[in-house]
Write the structure tokens for this entry.
Amino acid sequence: MIATIAAHQMLSLRRQRIFLAVLATLMAMTTLAGLIGWSSHQTIVRVYDEAVRMLGAQGKPAPPNPFVLKPTLSLLSNMAIYIPLIGALLALILGHLSLADDESNGVGRLIFSRQVSRRSYFFGKVAAAAVVLAVILLVSFLISSVSLVLVNGAAPTVTDFLRLAVFYVVSWLYLMLFALIGMVTVLLTRRRSLALLAALGVWLVLTFAMPQFTSGLRPTASLNPITDPVSTSQTFFKVTAKARPFSVSEQYKEVSARVLETGASESTSATVLRVVPIVVLLGVLMLMTARLVRRHDYSRSSADE
Amino acid sequence: MNRSRVITIARHEYRAAVRSRVLLALVAILVVVTAASVYIASVDYSSKLADYQAYRAAAQAGGLKQIAPSPLRLLSLLRGAMEYIDIIGAIIGITLGYLSVSRERANRTLALLRSRPVSPGELAAGSALGALAVISTVILATMAVAVVCLGLVGHDWVSSAEIVKLLLAFAASIIYMGVFYCLGAVMTARSKVAANGLMFALGIWLVVVLILPQIGDTLDADNQVPGGLFSALTLNKAQETKIITKFGTYETVRRDIEEASFAKHYERFAFAMTDVQDKYQGLSLSELLWKKHNDIAWMVIYPLVLGFALVRSFRRQPAITQGVNP
């Protein structure tokens, strides 16, 4: 039964234009990430050459090249921005549509007039979201790999492939959080729009507000993979920094930076520890969704707005 | 266009909007995060201001005739507020537009209104006016909180010259959110299922507010290294400009990507008015406005285009229900 519910859900998602539109945006941006990385990298190298020439003409010594020993995977550093932005919104919509459609078109009532347990329904919906997100990220992984080959002119090493795979596994965990947030908000509210906007509110807080409170990162600074260090010596940050391990978007970016080797290196155990809050929150959201599905009144259709 | 009918619709729009819990929740998020971001910046500013005042007092006591002016820029502390309006303000605008259409559809009052002698233009103008009143209230509340925070935490109050610039930034914020209101209303009116219209509007928001500026920022050579590439290469402004001229096509493409985003025009204007960027230091207001004429032009064109689209969308709404669910 779980497989039937999951298969039905995946079929219905394929028919959703908005889901397909956001999916197409994510795929396009995955392709662009490599191109943008390559283009900006080439420009920096040329700017450096020009700077060396200009300073040399003035008899000044050449500064060190800021891109020396830049790792291969750094070309994909933009993916660590696109996943929490476009990917997370895609996951929110996925989670939202998974349950909201059943509420508004009466499928929920029909399903539970049959011998379908709430448990099977919950696992079917979560399995569908997990499979769809896994397939999307697998395609992203393949596009990223091809980009690396094309841009670097050589196949990535096995270690680089493994690093890229780890990055996409962590991304999958991170996106599952938002799929579940999309589901929870549908189960907690009566109107579709309210559910969608509530989920969006949670996304805004996790993506923009939390990093500012805990690390002083301005909202638009969250959009650039390279951020200037921010002074957090104020008393305010001494208090709020304690909540930094729970700021999942920051932890996700930190893990991505370590895995793609775009940030300062740290021990593997420290990087693994950063994934723990994401896994814990995932567990909490799973339990919450299961509980809400079990208690939800499917005899009541929600408003279509 | 009948003025009293427009005002009646605007009043109705305002009353209905402030009753919406979801809108109030979004406004609360905006006000709280803005206050927090200004508070964080003000605490830092307060200690720097105290340092400057101590230096000034010591210099005066020492009989120094030329005292360096304060390098601190009070309004720049509002950068976080502007960025939150850029991101969350746009969502509030879309939500307002969505609610404006979906509410009337759900209550079946849109068809009723269309069956009365109310033209689509009056309907659009009334709704937009009501929405602008709501947006103005939100912006004023947000900015009042921010300015009071500057005074109480930063220990520095906004001067009269700064108030004019601040008011211009407020006006730009109202226009910015108004454009997203129109987008939300148009997309909802064009969709059979209102929630799908909301999702499409949010998709456009994602591209315009987050993706396009992000691409532009990432392609900016100076943003590739923490602290700035040109600083890392120990180049001064003149040398930077000389090198940049050799990358004309690259810079044009990068700038065009940014130009395509309405959010970027708003951000540039608002940042110029709130002294965020060093390059506008020392310019008079008229010089500043002239420098920003391109962004001002876009902030006129976008509302006109979306306002026209709003009228068209209302014109297309059926005057009587056709036996299907709204």
Remarks:
- Chain A has a mean pLDDT of 84.
- Chain A has one domain: 2-295.
